[in-house]
Amino acid sequence: MKTVLVFYLLLSAHFRPSIAYRTTTDQDSTVELQTFPDNIRPTFDPYQLWMQSLAKVKAIEFVVTLVIGTLGVIGNLLILVVTVHYNYIGIPQVYMATLAISDLCIAVFGLWRVLADNLYFLSDGVYWFCVHTYFPVIGLDAAASITASLTAMALSLDRYLALKYPMKHSEYWPVDKAKILTVTVGLISLIFGITYPLRYYISTTRTPGKNMLPPEWTSLGENQAFTKTSVCVEFFFRFALPVVVMAVTNTATMAIIHKSDKFRRSMSKYTQSTINTPKCLTMTVGIVIIFFITNLPKACFMMDFIIFQYSHSAQFNTSFITFAYGGNLLAKLNSIVNIIVYFTLDSEFRATLLKSLRISGRRPVEAACNIAIAASLQNATGRDHPNPPQHASEAQLNVFVPVEEENTCFQDTRLSADDTFWGVSTVSCQETQVI
User: Fold this and answer.
1) 21-25 and 30-34 strand pairing
2) Which residue ranges run through the membrane (predicted)?
3) Contact of 144 with 105, CB cutoff 8 Å
């Protein structure tokens, strides 16, 4: 009997689990779950698993947005610097500057949003500041995006009209009207951006255990008619209208360019050189193509809300959230590719940028030209010029000739008292922009 008892105790000790088990039942089956301390307990909650995968996606978005935002700030500042250095600001340059300002705002606001998402927990003051600026900044970001889209549309339409009706375009659409148009577009876009803080807010009470700033609906945002109308209006002005107009004008522009090239090839070289072509045509085509590529996923995401109201996003679909983040990042990528398009396709922009960065190698050549001209004039007249120039400008080469040679139509009146013997004949060295 004693042997049987000992054997029973050994068996019970061997088969007894070291950790207690508890049984939970639901309507489908009985699941046996092992209990652990709270700090090491694994989670089987689908929502918690989805939040963990979402945190990984947001970490990747944080790094990529920082890189894109930084490059966007640098690139668009360079575009503005080049625009300031232009000798003449035409209509294309007005639209280019507006695009640069809009893309600069997009980059700055995007940087602020990801920083607020990841730094709000530093202190109560930081949390309060992030809460009160989060959705207003997102609204400004949307307004800047709408401004950029409408400005790109205006640039495409303007270049088509300049190519199709060159005389009427220069007469009825001066630079001042283009400036007024860009300011008006920016103000209208702000109205659309205001809807974001009207629809969403973040609670001022910090929720423990939350690893993000949870948005909540305002009383106005809970109105489905207002929310859907706001999204539809933003979609129309940000994607639908620009895409349709740019597709039509870009196709017509490329058709005209093709016919023009065929006509040019049938001419003599001298006749080809006398034809003036509107500037920035190739650059405009590049901007339109890049706009289509970078904004298509974001447009699909907004169409999903208009049609399905994000109904499938409530199923903890990580793929849907990843697509949403990817479309947002690709749309922001448009803010850094414009400088690449300008630098590649616009020779005037490229030359001005290199000159602004002081890496152009043309200054020694220009200085040598002026020295040679001054020496030849000294030999011809037997007299030194009191203040010979050190170098010529990027776009002009100053050729000095005596006043007696009746070049009065080229004379420059900006001469000092010591320069009364000299006139200035200005010969333009700037190449005409070719498609």
Assistant:
1) antiparallel
2) 59-82, 94-114, 134-157, 178-202, 235-259, 280-308, 320-345
3) yes
Q: Kindly state the tokens that stand for 97.
A: 């500057």
Cα–Cα distance, 290 to 243 (Å, whole number): 12
Question: What pTM does this model have?
Answer: 0.69
Give the DSSP H/E element, type plus range, for residue 398: strand 396-402
> Hey, what are 146's tokens?
């709408």
Residues of the chain with CATH 1.20.1070.10: 48-356
Residue 189 amino acid letter: S
Give the CATH number of domain 48-356: 1.20.1070.10
Helix, strand and coil percent figures for the chain, each rounded to 5: 70, 5, 25
**In which element (H, E) is residue 53 found?**
helix 46-84
Calculate mean pLDDT across residues 349-378: 62
Nearest to 355 by CA among 311, 392, 322: 392
pLDDT in tens, 289-333: 888 889 888 888 888 888 877 666 555 567 777 888 888 888 888
Task: Spell out the residues 6+ positions from residue 151 whose beta carbon is closer than 8 angstroms to its own.
Answer: 95, 98, 99, 102, 182, 185
Structure tokens at 262: 């065929």
Which amino acid, one-letter code, is at 75?
Answer: G
Q: How far is CA 96 from CA 48, 77, 82, 93, 214, in A?
A: 46, 12, 10, 5, 37
- Among residues 328, 324, 348, 312, the alpha carbon closest in space to that of 96 is found at 348
Nearest CA among 148, 102, 145, 90 for reference residue 280: 90
Token readout for 325 is 């983040």
Amino acid code (one letter) for 217 = W
Q: Which uninterrupted H or E stretch holds 425?
A: strand 422-428
Contact between residue 213 and residue 130 where contact means Cβ atoms under 8 Å apart: yes
